[in-house]
UniProtKB/TrEMBL annotation, chain A:
Entry keywords, A to Z: Molybdenum, Oxidoreductase
Source organism: Desulfomonile tiedjei
Domain Aldehyde oxidase/xanthine dehydrogenase a/b hammerhead span(s) in chain numbering: 22-125
Molecular function in Gene Ontology: iron ion binding; oxidoreductase activity
InterPro entries (UniProt xref): Ald_Oxase/Xan_DH_a/b, Ald_Oxase/Xan_DH_a/b_sf, Ald_Oxase/xanthine_DH-like, AldOxase/xan_DH_MoCoBD1, AldOxase/xan_DH_MoCoBD2, AldOxase/xan_DH_Mopterin-bd_sf
Descriptive protein name: Xanthine dehydrogenase family protein molybdopterin-binding subunit
Classification via SMART domains: Ald_Xan_dh_C
From TrEMBL, chain B:
Species of the source: Desulfomonile tiedjei
Location of the 2Fe-2S ferredoxin-type domain: 17-100
PANTHER family: OXIDOREDUCTASE WITH IRON-SULFUR SUBUNIT
Record-linked InterPro entries: 2Fe-2S-bd (IPR002888), 2Fe-2S-bd_dom_sf (IPR036884), 2Fe-2S_ferredoxin-like_sf (IPR036010), 2Fe-2S_ferredoxin-type (IPR001041), 2Fe2S_fd_BS (IPR006058), Beta-grasp_dom_sf (IPR012675), Diverse_Oxidoreductases (IPR051452)
Full protein name: (2Fe-2S)-binding protein
UniProt keyword list: 2Fe-2S, Iron, Iron-sulfur, Metal-binding, Oxidoreductase
Gene Ontology terms, MF aspect: 2 iron, 2 sulfur cluster binding; metal ion binding; oxidoreductase activity
Residue stretches in coiled coil: none
Highest taxon of the lineage: Bacteria
TrEMBL record, chain C:
Organism: Desulfomonile tiedjei
FAD-binding PCMH-type domain mapped to chain residues: 1-235
Name of the protein in its database record: FAD binding domain-containing protein
UniProt KW keywords: FAD, Flavoprotein, Oxidoreductase
GO terms for MF: FAD binding; oxidoreductase activity
Organism lineage string: Bacteria, Pseudomonadati, Thermodesulfobacteriota, Desulfomonilia, Desulfomonilales
Cited PROSITE patterns: FAD_PCMH
InterPro entries linked to this entry: CO_DH_flav_C, CO_DH_flav_C_dom_sf, Diverse_Substr_Oxidored, FAD-bd_PCMH, FAD-bd_PCMH-like_sf, FAD-bd_PCMH_sub1, FAD-bd_PCMH_sub2, Mopterin_DH_FAD-bd
Entry keyword annotation includes Phosphoprotein: no
Amino acid sequence: MGDDYRFIGKATQRRDAVEIVTGTALYLDDLRFQNLLHGKVLRSPHAHALIKKIDKSKAEALPGVKAVLTWQDIPDWKGGTPRKLRVLDKKVRYVGDAVALVAASTEEIAREALDLIEVEYQVLPAVLDMDSALKHGAPLIYDEFPGNIIPGGTIAFGPNCLKGVVMGDVEKGFAEADVIAEGTFGYENIPNALPPEPVGAVAMWEEPNKVTLWSTSQAPYMDKGTLFHVFNRQVEIRCIGNHVGGSFGTKIMCWQVQAYAVLLSRATGKPVKVMFTKEEHMAAFTLRIGSRIHARVGMKKDGTLTAIHGTWYVDSGYYSFTTQAQVAVGSGELMIMAQCPNWDLKNIIVATNRNASGSTRGFGGQELKCSFIPILSLAMEKAALDPFEVLKKNYVKPGGGYFWRDGNWYQYRGIDYSAAMDKGAEQFGWKEKWKGWLTPTAVNGTKRLGIGVGVHGNADVGEDSAEAYVQLDCNGTATIFLCAAEHGTGQKSNYAKLVAEVLQIPLDRISMTPADSLITPFEFGPVGSRGTYAIGSAVINAAEDVKRRLFEFVAPKLGAEPQDLETVDGVVFVKGYPEKSLKWRALGYDRTLLGHGRFEPDFTVCNCMMSFVEVEVDTETGKVTLLRVVLATDVGQIIDPQGLEGQLNGALGSAGIDSAIFEETILNHSTGHILNANLMDYKWRTFTELPAMEHVVLETPMPTHRFHAVGVGEVATSPGPSAVLMAVSNAVGSWLHEYPVTPDRVLRAIGKVGYSARGGKK
Amino acid sequence: MTANKSDRVTRETAATRHVGFTVNGQYHEFRVGSGGIEISPTHTLSWTLREVLGLMGTKVSCDSGACGSCTVIMDGKAVLSCKVLTIECDGKTITTIEGLRDPKTGALDPIQQSFIDHTAFQCGYCTPGMIMTAKAFLNENPQPTEEEIKDALSGNFCRCISHYQVIRAVMSVVEKEGEHGR
Amino acid sequence: MKQFEHHDALSIEEAVALLSDYEGKAKIIAGGTDLLGALRDEVFLEYPEALINIKTIDGLDYIRSDEKGLAIGAMAGLADIVKSPVVKKEYQMLAEAAYSVATPQIRNMATIGGNLAQDVRCWFYRYPRRIGGPMVCLRKGGKFCSALAGDNRYHSIFGAAALSDISLDLGKVRKGCFAVGPSDIAVALIAMDASIVTTKRSLPAELFFKATALSSTVLDSDELVKEIEIPKLPMGAVQRYDKFTLRKPIDFAVVSVASMLTLNNGVCEDARIVLGAVAPEPVRARKAEQVMKGRIVDEDVALEAAEHALAGSSPLRMNEYKVEIAKVLVKHAIWG
Ligand SMILES: Cc1cc2nc3c(=O)[nH]c(=O)nc-3n(C[C@@H](O)[C@@H](O)[C@H](O)COP(=O)(O)OP(=O)(O)OC[C@H]3O[C@@H](n4cnc5c(N)ncnc54)[C@H](O)[C@@H]3O)c2cc1C
Ligand code: FES
Ligand code: FES
């Protein structure tokens, strides 16, 4: 559609394809280092305790042990928002919290040394959930956070960081409403995005204050910034990225494992690797945030929203780093999907004695929507409205707007996504299948079918600055200098495509530097949905910049003006006069040209994803089967069809749709242990249980992007969970309001099982 | 402890036990012990492949038998190298992802090529295990149905959800083989 | 993994001798799919000093059938059992049970002997040492089963296994261990009235799987499973193995039911119905079997039998749903 491109939109081989299929793609654990030591972490058995005494003498005496560090041995390095959490502290705050670090010549010795460290704890009462954390007189996890409430706002988003949404007059809004729904609903199963590769880092310290880090992070430049503050702005940091075995937004923040490796390297003078095991990854690395909302929603008979009023309770676990940012982005995202003149939506971030929450695909918005849409559903039911129509109606349209993370109001200047939604509904057969609220689409004996719909969109397609260089060489090649590690989205290959398109040279003429903060300019990281729009634009700008320089250099030699020139396959010629040409070789063997590209944040556009799901519920056993998923979106311009397909299919993984079906992190409510920190008890979708998956992808050119594209990969997961809840409720004919809808809950909803201690509070 | 035991135990240790097996066509022999290049009884095959033989293509994700990313082919069968003790591999023939290319021409295995053609991966971490599982399966059953392929791959974790593209990649190899057969 | 010694046994006798040499401090390794996980996570109260490999013993992996029935060597692989033509044809319940285990790769490695002797899968018991574990449950020297106060959605609905082998009084014991028997194959074997032949004895499967809070079987520490014998099944017996899980494959059963019904013109002549994952050991639904005998099998009989099968259950705080699912599975076992 639109322009006829040479590379963009064509199926091309991923740049790293051969490496991946031959096992030669190098992930962190595949890198080899001379004299490498192995680091391990001793972890707390208590959810909340003070360390009274640590005796590490036996561990230190074990042959092969090079360092044992406790909170007493390390500098006052701190992370979190606000920066209050020490890398090792004299207090432990969840089961699995780091107590001591060991470096040894082998992993086995390091592990053995952990057993030799003797720790005496003074166990403190713990608060394992928001209810107990917020109780009057509850034990405090941090002295600095009275009531276990973590202050909102993050300086990363500026002094006016969005902390809630207040506008208009909610009382007036409710007065205008035809229906009002109210309730308290949660998305509190803290699922895990769970990339296959565990998190880890290798650090090499150089006295007095330099460190080089290789990590599983996909955002090396961001790490450099994060760690700079963690290390009290006293350490010079170089971060190098490699292949990342999946991230789904989680690995942008690996500060703890990075700090462990750095501390151990600093203590030993040797490179140290700390690689989490899968169970550490699952029990001591970040989860989704826990989300609960108490709200009232006012709506007119035609589905127009009149008021939204309530409080969003956000369970951040034992600390927060990105939670405030997620609250800001999530609140803005709610405004994008629920255009409404009157708002009063506050939020409270709560600390609890469980493993921390952090960044995950869907970044706050998924979590908020999963709790909010059930209330909206009650309103739609009262007004007997079709949810598809209501969601479509209230999604932001040109002329609409929203507050975004920096607290500013943005007038939306993207496209109207209604067309994509309509197309999706048509493909799904929504109109034929929709039979009304709490009404199954079909009943076959004990099996009932139900449908649901959800929507999500994100204005961080254009978040944060990005920079890139593109360098031209006289031999007709180009090199992209960009700090992006490939984590599965195929974006690195897409950037090469963008440059190839601008410079009109074959893809194999383009190389990329490693993601190395010493070599490349600033890049925030492939997070949110910014890969295509923000980073892509920086890359395009760099390519355009170097092309301009090339033309300026060549123009006098061709006796033409730069703007009259064109280049194809390493030859510059005068438009319309192909014979008046010069090869790039004319630059001379002793010259390269460097273009600089920068992207300035722009929050005026957003993407959109609508999910339609159909489920079958077995009313005898309570089992929910996902039969079909249709995802509808508009990407402006497809860059890589196969890459896009993969990203959209990803809706099923990374704590997306399945977080409504069987995914959950199971926290033992009596002790705080995570009981399913393994790949058997944490459920994930297998090859034998794949639903039919269909994509409806429109390409309505986006005016703001050079190639008219907008990224959608991130948002594929987010509309799914609430759609499933809706579908299951419709199938069984009564409301299910807890995630995931496991058989026990379904059987309880249909009255076959009475009391259940699980999620049975409400 | 009885005298018997020490007899039996000495019988084994005194004769310095060796373990030898073939990986990707090359025979390796190790002495059992706890020294640098020796094989400790506790070493798993995935560890030996990666840390001793430097074959980093075999990925370890869960290290607990639950994800399939460490799958290699041993005596024709897909097995989980994180749940095999190296010391028990004596006499075995093992193929890892590094051994799939044609040793003479260096050409990719048709499954590898098909994974590329279908972009049957995103992060690629699960890919070596997927390919090895599919390879062992197609060796045994060259003309499977789509359902059979799904079943064969049902123990392989892929969090990026490359499943649909993987199925297409494997099916396309099956279809091509079928054409050659005709 | 922590260090252990390792021996390749060349005969059953040698394996037994090695086991007794180590005085209970050695473990057999067959396929290793269960054992190596338990060693890695250091779940045993006492870490073994040695592993005795029995893969080096020749001739233990047979699947033989004759007019008396089926004999399976302890080292027969689960994948081979699934594929065996005779098992598929005449003992399909076993093929189904074996197929329901874990994943294709694990079935390529795992043995039937190991499946029967595997350790329980309770998440308190198996809680990994390295993230603040172990959880000191009853099996680890604690006073109580952690499932009593903790998340017990997958635990027993028929009471606990006592610490010592005083006979299990279903539904009554509250002090023991609430972990459920893990083996899928055990459930099928009891339904087929199989016998387990060990190096010390031969006994009906039902008596072999007698659970205490320390073990799911009666195996002594120096005893090996040698063979599984399944009598020829009655002509026309309707067999079925049904396993409920949140997703397939990989998962251990939430509830499973193995059943064998002998019908004559729709009249039930004999029935064996065994429930798995509902108690520390497989539970034979004797009352349910009795109410069916001599009656024409229809939906009402099936419903009645299902009620009887679960009559003695006493679910814990979070697992009442298992009762309901078990009833459904029993009903389907009898009536489609
Ligand atoms: C991801 C995963 C999923 C699983 N899912 C299931 C499932 O759904 N259903 C199920 O039933 N199991 C399941 N399992 C358990 C699986 O390990 C067993 O089913 C398997 O059959 C064990 O056999 P093995 O030969 O590997 O035993 P091993 O691990 O070698 O041994 C297990 C135990 O049995 C003992 N043992 C082995 N052989 C003998 C013998 N001949 N005599 C006496 N003792 C012996 C060993 O000492 C050890 O204690 C799963 C395991 C994993 C890792
Ligand atoms: S790493 Fe071996 S199965 Fe997961
Ligand atoms: S491609 Fe990432 S896990 Fe499969």
